Amino acid sequence: MKRSPTCAGALPRRAGPPKNSSPTGRSRLNSAGTPAGQPPPQVSIPVGYTTFPGEIFRAPRSWVEQGYPTLTYFHEAAKGGHFAAWEEPGLFSEEIRAAFNSLR
Fold first, then answer.
1. Does residue 46 contact residue 96 with C-beta atoms inside 8 Å?
2. What is the mean pLDDT of residues 19-23?
3. Cα(93)–Cα(77) distance, rounded to whole angstroms?
4. Assign residue 61 a region: left if phi > 0, alpha if psi is -120 to 50, beta otherwise?
5. Per residue in 71-98, pLDDT tens?
6. CA torsion angle 51 57 61 63 (round to 10)
7. Please, which pLDDT band fits residue 63 given cuts at 50, 70 and 90?
8. Which residue from 36, 72, 76, 87 lies 20 to 30 Å from 15 (Cα-Cα)?
9. Within a domain: residue 11?
10. Can you give the residue range of the structural domain that contains 88?
C-alpha cells in the first residue's frame, strides 16, 4: 500500500517571503487574487447580495449592479451587521434561501 506524503513533505521548500508580498509581509493581492489596482475577473454566475445595517460599509444597489452584472437578488436587511451569520442566523439563512430561490 502506497503511503501519502505528510503535510510537511508536500510543502515546497522555499525560503523568504511568499510571492506577491511586500517587505512588510502584507499581500499585494486583492480579495479576488489579482494584483492590487487591477479589476477582479468578471463574474458569470448569478449573484445574490444582502446588505446589513450594521455593516462597516453599505454598498448601494447601483454599485453592486456595476460590479456584478449578473445580480439576481439584492436586499437591504432590517438588522444584522458585519457578522450577520453569527448575529442573526435565522435572517441570514432566509436571505440565502431568497437569493437562490429563483434558481430552483
1. no
2. 50
3. 12
4. alpha
5. 999 999 999 999 999 999 999 999 999 9
6. -140
7. very high
8. 36
9. no
10. 41-104
Instruction: Cell 479589476: give the residue.
Output: 39
Query: Which whole number is the average pLDDT over 14-41?
Result: 58
Tally the C-alpha atoms within 13 A of residue 79's C-alpha that lie toward its C-beta.
7
> Which pTM value belongs to this model?
0.60
- CA nearest 74: which of 65, 66, 83? 65
Identity of the amino acid at 47: V
Cell of 20: 506577491
| Distance separating the N- and C-terminal Cα atoms of the chain | 44
Asked if residue 96 is part of any domain, the answer here is yes
Question: 16 vs 101, which has greater pLDDT?
Answer: 101
Residue 76 lies in a domain: yes
Cα separation, 94 vs 104, whole angstroms: 15
Taking a C-beta distance cutoff of 8 angstroms, is the pair 81, 54 a contact? yes
Cell of 102: 429563483
In a domain, 8, yes or no: no
The number of folded domains in the chain is 1
